[in-house]
Write a structure and sequence with these properties.
CATH class of the largest domain: Mainly Alpha
Pfam family, one: GntR
InterPro entries: GntR_C (IPR011711), TF_FadR/GntR_C (IPR008920), Tscrpt_reg_HTH_GntR (IPR000524), WH-like_DNA-bd_sf (IPR036388), WH_DNA-bd_sf (IPR036390)
Protein name: Glc operon transcriptional activator
Domain HTH gntR-type: 7-75
Largest sheet: 2 strands, antiparallel
Number of domains: 2
Strand order of the largest sheet: 1-2
CATH architecture of the largest domain: Up-down Bundle
Shape: elongated
Mean pLDDT: 87
GO molecular function, one term: DNA-binding transcription factor activity
Number of strands: 2
Strand content: under 5%
Helix content: 55-70%
């Protein structure tokens, strides 16, 4: 995923705060410092900090309420309220999952028909990176690898409009891919779902690739607390 300078700064801040949580420097139930103090501590603008905190809330690391301090949620994670509007676009998460269910399953089938050995190697490397990030509970990176996995499949479908659509609405897709990662006890099923899709593409089995992608999107929505 191509990132702007602001996106890179936001990711850097999210990674820094995530590491403070993972290392135990910020403990479960502890309120974060004020946004002013935290932005000064990290040397970033409050705008970048706010976007990073939204990213971390989508990943289940923190929880915030209006006019209250942001609280660390470390042990079990937390899935965001599915009624909350996406902060990047006017579409609801449910609308985006519906779109992904239809389009990405078709793209997976086409990728199974046309994917080259070189492209398969790229997908394998992505899956390895995704699994490693989950194992380390680096959820910021895991969400990005998840997004890249789906974007690659759209790109390898030999339909430029699919890939262009993912580029145009990439940030919103990334948010729907971040939400299920709040379900920390369900990481294994996420890796299995990705592997089933990849195995079908490698075997050039479009029907299976479409089927496993549909199952994956349905399960991802369910992990995000959204009924399809």
């Amino acid at each position: 995923m191509t990132q702007s300078h602001n996106d890179k700064v936001t990711k850097m801040v999210a990674l820094q705060i995530q590491e403070l949580i993972r290392s135990g420097a910020l403990s479960d139930g502890q309120p974060l410092p004020s946004q002013r103090a935290l932005s000064q501590m990290l040397g970033v603008s409050r705008t970048s900090l706010r976007e990073a905190l939204i990213t971390l809330e989508m990943l289940g690391w923190v929880h915030s309420e209006p006019r209250k301090r942001t609280i660390i949620v470390n042990k079990e994670g937390r899935v965001p309220d599915d009624t909350a509007p996406l902060w990047r676009l006017d579409y609801s998460a449910k609308e985006i999952y519906h779109f992904r269910f239809i389009v990405e399953s078709h793209a997976a089938g086409r990728a199974a028909m046309y994917c080259s050995d070189k492209q398969v190697k790229i997908l394998r490397q992505n899956l390895q990176s995704f699994n490693k990030a989950l194992k380390m509970q680096d959820l910021v990176s895991a969400a990005e690898h998840d997004h890249d996995f789906h974007h690659l499949i759209m790109s390898f479908s030999q339909n430029r409009m699919f890939a262009d659509c993912y580029d145009s609405y990439g940030k919103s897709f990334l948010e729907t891919q971040s939400r299920p990662l709040g379900q920390r006890k369900r990481f294994l099923e996420m890796t299995i779902e990705h592997k089933n899709i990849l195995d079908s593409i490698v075997a050039h089995e479009p029907t299976n690739a479409e089927y496993f992608m549909r199952i994956h999107i349905l399960k991802a929505a369910e992990r995000a607390g959204i009924s399809m």
